[in-house]
Amino acid sequence: MMQDTGSQMGHTHLNPRPPLNDTVLKNYHLTSTDIEKFVKLWQEFQMKNMTAQVDECQGYCQGEIYNWLRAYNSIHGYVSLMICIFGTIANILNIMVLTRKEMAKTPINNILKWLAVADMFVMLEYIPYTSYQYIYMGPGEKDLSYTWAVCLLVHMHFTQILHTISIGLTVTLAVWRYVAIRHPNGGCANFLLAHSREAILLPFILSPILCLPTYFVFQVRETYDVDKLNSEAMYHVYFDKDSVLYRFNFWIHSVLIKLLPCGILIVISAVLMHVLCEASRRRLKLRDYNNPAKYAIQLNLNESKSKKPPRCDRRNDRTTLLLVAVLVLFLITEFPQGLLGLLSGVMEKCFFAHCYPPFGELMDLLALINAAVGFVLYGLMSKQFRTTFRSLFMKRHFGSTEMTRLTRVTTTCV
Length: 414
What we know:
By secondary structure, the protein is mainly alpha-helical. The protein is built from 18 helices and two strands. It has two domains: 1-53, no CATH class; 73-413, Rhopdopsin 7-helix transmembrane proteins. It is elongated.
């Protein structure tokens, strides 16, 4: 309500006029009764506009699912705080493990390391925000101070930039694995290997540029309560829903930053799954012991086509399966956000005002879960990660022979 009032007042063009003192009132033949009538008419005009807007958006986003969303929103602060604390610790452990000498030899582990860094900073920033917004302030309570409005604006830009960096690193990870599997000895693979640092640095450079329209769409705005003559200034993050830049920003955010990477990841994930299925069928054929002659012929053909040992093939499959799990989790998180943003750009005012906010906390929850479960995925699906973690935190000399063997296999396979 305060945003609508501020928007309408901000778009009202009045001619310059001198301050209303007693001399001016006498010159214009104005009395206090005239001023009271004007204020009353202005309030009636505001109420009519608000009623028209409610009638225009009536019937949007109603049903049982929205009741469930509103019920979850009441506990979002506590849930997100626990996930952020766990995710921050988990990502710190990821960084410590992935920066070990035996792990840092492969470009994929370096990408995963910087992905953990971006996710860690997202959660570190979200902890004070959710603690104040959802836990310290009571239900329905709002902080309309200038300091909190600036904090909200910084929170919005900071999380969007870091989240875009995570998207870029995830796409880089998928493209890297695709090239390593489909064209392991081609010119593209050699180029990526020679410029691995530049490939990791690129998302950090492009993300602030892609988020550039957002910097101009949202701003801190000062408003006053029209019902109170001597009301204090109220500050909130304001955006003009009718501006071209606002619509352009929604299209950039939903299509270019969200849906386009999701489309790329869907294609690459399908290709990687196809490679895994082919490898599984190939191993089943090699296990055809019922026909020893056929088995011997297939085994000889397999050895003549590839000089890699079977252990390396199995490790390649585990690495590919791990990355497919990371990509699928990313798609579950990002695709709904892109779809909601696209619908907000197409349906504009009513959808964004009534349908998007109930999903806001749920989208935040999915993003936080995506940023927190990397440690669990790596631990469950990567033997090298588990061995490095045990040697780092449990026993200093645990599995030194195993680590040497894994490092040699990793250098050969990835």
